[in-house]
Amino acid sequence: AFGAETLTKLKELNILVIGCRGTGVEYCKNLILSNVGGVTVWDRNPAEMRDLGANFYLTTEHVKSNTCRGDACLSQLKSLNPYCNVESHKAETLTNEFLKSKDINGTGKPFSAIIVTQLLPKEDMFRVNQIARENNIAFLCALTSGVTASIFSDFGPNHVITDTNGQAMPTKAI
Fold first, then answer.
1. Residues in CB range of 121: below 8 A, 6 or more apart
2. Total-model pTM
3. Which pLDDT tens digit goes with each residue over 107-138?
4. For residue 156, how far is the Cα from the chain centroid?
């Protein structure tokens, strides 16, 4: 359970999730159920048969109609929490202007975090990370391929680590 202060902070967050395969849709689901302020998904790739094994919101109808994954998942994601602003970004590319926008989906707030869950061209990945870093937006990249995974995080130059010694915190029972 979250305390009142944490719940208030969560409600202020706008998150961009790039990619709606298994990892991406799972991120979206968990964020929406956590009651963040808004989740924007961006995945303009059409749903494929192989996606049905990992994305529980896609159907064979989405595959047959070549519906892009971001749009195909939208109604199911929205139904999870009526208090979370959930949208699919419809543009074919992620522009710098969109990533830097100070008013995401009419919330009056910029993105707090960008989560990349599908492999992007190297230039695009570096560009998105650089924009995030320059605009104090957390950048996470979580990629999976079969049984392997890769995670990268960049919380920007203002991120402070308060761990004094790198050792695990002791657990005590009272």
1. none
2. 0.89
3. 889 999 999 999 999 999 999 999 999 999 99
4. 17
- Cβ-contact 15, 115 below 8 angstroms: yes
Residue 121, number of CB atoms within 10 A of its CB: 8
129 three-state secondary structure = helix
Q: Is 88 helix (H, G, I), strand (E, B) or coil?
A: strand
Residue with tokens 């308060």: 162
Reading phi first (left if > 0) and then psi (alpha if -120 to 50, else beta), residue 127 is in alpha
For 52-67, how does the pLDDT look when each residue is reduced to its tens digit (9 = 90+)?
999 999 999 999 999 9
Contact, 133 vs 156, CB < 8 A? yes
- Tokens 């998904």 identify what position? 41
CA proximity to 26, closest of 15, 35, 17: 17
Q: If you count DSSP H runs as helices and E runs as strands, how many of each does the chain have, helices first?
A: 6, 6
Distance separating alpha carbons of residues 138 and 116, to the nearest angstrom: 11
Helix axes 69-79, 22-33, angle to 10 degrees: 30
How far is Cα 99 from Cα 111, in angstroms, rounded to an integer?
7
pLDDT digits (tens, 9 = 90+) for 64-112: 999 999 999 999 999 999 999 999 999 999 999 999 999 998 888 999 9
